[in-house]
Specification:
This protein has 10 helices and 6 strands, in the order E-H-H-H-H-H-H-H-H-E-H-E-E-H-E-E. A hairpin with a 3-residue loop joins strand 3 and strand 4. The two termini are about 30 Å apart. The N terminus and C terminus are likely disordered. It folds into 3 domains: about 150 residues, no CATH class; about 70 residues, Single alpha-helices involved in coiled-coils or other helix-helix interfaces (Up-down Bundle), CATH 1.20.5.1930; about 120 residues, Heat Shock Protein 90 (2-Layer Sandwich). The longest helix has about 70 residues. About 60% of the residues lie in helices and about 10% in strands.
Length: about 425
């Protein structure tokens, strides 16, 4: 079974944006951690400047790997921050600046970690390290003794520790919230896709009923004719038997294709169909490519100019003919609902190899339908129909504006005899 192809932003673009964000944040936090000890609100770090630069590089640069090695990166930046605090290479009155990389790493672990226990453990570890290191800094180095006349803030370690605790706790909470939302959206997308596929399969099941009813009725009639004319008119009897053979072969091919789509996955649960157009497969003649002009006229009533080109579609198998009609119907519905287009071109062309369907509009530049992750119910329904015949469906915006739907159904099965 072929797969659905959707045109849209490629993963490479998202990956490049993530790398840029990581590089920018790592550079900014490295500069913050290096600059603050040299020019803090309180007395500056009296040691060599290269020590502050080393602390900044050691605290900021590992953030480049935070998405791939979140826990090791967090452990490293916590060790760097605690060591710098104990050694005094921090800004008095702004110790939080050294722990800002820890907050970013803490957010990443809480966001990417699959276990709440792990995220809680690293939070406790980070807060414990800060709670031990910041008082040690003020007790060991006593920055207030170096003169507080030029200090911009009171040098109280309790305030410094409180700021760091709030910073790390807020980062952890934000990470957990973002993760919970992402998990909920992913589950919603999976559930929506399963429901849409189940709805479409139920619609196809009703169409399967029509295929069976039509084929078996035709076979019954031809068998009756063949039985009555077997002795009187052998030629007509042979023609009737040939029609039965061709009709049964075509029906069996369609039934196998439809049953392959209808076979439920182990984790799907049957539910009543609620998809739009659930009654389209009522008993009676099924629509096909011959009904497309009437369908086009209905859509033209919406002031949409439509050019229709049909080529070689007069003898399509019933199932393929129905799929062609449904794909064009859904594509035109999306044009009217979403494209704000004035002109649309519909091409249905049959060759010796396949049937190709193209629906292209001239609407303004827009992205692929994003009401639901993976596309709306209509796109999923089109995919199921085309996949039932081993075909492919490609949808997406055009570079200069407009939107296209292209479907290919290869190796069209032989036509059934009337």
């Amino acid at each position: 079974m072929r797969h659905f192809v959707a045109l849209g932003p490629r993963p490479d673009a998202r990956r490049r944006r993530a790398v840029f964000v990581d590089a920018a944040s790592a550079a900014a936090l490295a500069c913050l951690a290096a600059y603050t000890p040299l020019d803090p609100p309180g007395p500056p770090y009296p040691g060599p400047a290269w020590a502050a630069l080393l602390v900044g590089a050691a605290a900021g640069s590992p953030l480049l790997l935070r998405r791939r090695r979140s826990v090791p990166v967090l452990v490293w930046v916590v060790l760097v921050a605690v060591s710098a605090t104990v050694l005094g290479v921090v800004g008095a009155g702004a110790v939080w600046a050294t722990y800002a990389p820890v907050a970013v790493a803490m957010y990443t672990v809480a966001n990417l970690s699959s276990r709440t226990i792990v995220a809680a453990a690293v939070l406790v570890a980070g807060l414990g390290a800060a709670a031990a290191a910041i008082p040690a800094f003020y007790w060991i180095h006593r920055p207030a003794d170096r003169g507080t006349a030029g200090s911009e803030v009171p040098l109280w370690w309790q305030v410094e520790l409180g700021i760091v605790v709030v910073l790390l706790s807020a980062a952890w909470a934000a990470g957990r919230v973002v993760r919970s939302r992402r998990v909920a959206e992913a589950e919603f997308a999976r559930r929506s896709a399963r429901e849409a596929v189940a709805d479409e399969r139920l619609r196809i099941a009703r169409e399967l009923h029509d295929v069976l009813g039509h084929s078996m009725s035709l076979i019954t009639i031809k068998a009756t004719v063949a039985g009555r004319l077997a002795d009187e008119d052998p030629e007509h009897a042979k023609a009737a038997l040939s029609a039965i053979e061709q009709t049964s072969r075509a029906a069996m091919t369609e039934i196998r294709q439809l049953l392959g789509v209808l076979r439920p996955a182990s984790d799907e649960v049957d539910r009543p169909s609620t998809a739009d157009g659930a009654g389209d497969a009522e008993r009676g003649p099924l629509p096909g490519s011959a009904d497309l002009p009437v369908l086009i006229d209905r859509f033209r009533a919406t002031d949409l100019e439509i050019d229709l080109e049909l080529s070689g579609t007069g003898t399509l198998p019933p199932g393929v003919d129905l799929a062609v009609f449904r794909v064009v119907q859904e594509a035109l519905t999306n044009v009217v609902k979403h494209a704000a287009a004035r002109h649309c071109r519909v091409v249905v062309r049959r060759t010796t190899e396949s049937v190709r369907i193209e629906v292209v509009d001239d609407g303004p530049v827009r992205r692929a339908l994003r009401r639901r992750p993976g596309g709306g119910h209509g796109l999923i329904g089109m995919r199921e129909r085309i996949a039932a015949y081993g075909g492919t469906l490609t949808v997406g915006p055009l570079t200069d504006g407009g939107f296209q739907v292209v479907a290919d159904i290869p190796r069209v099965v032989p036509d059934a005899a009337p």
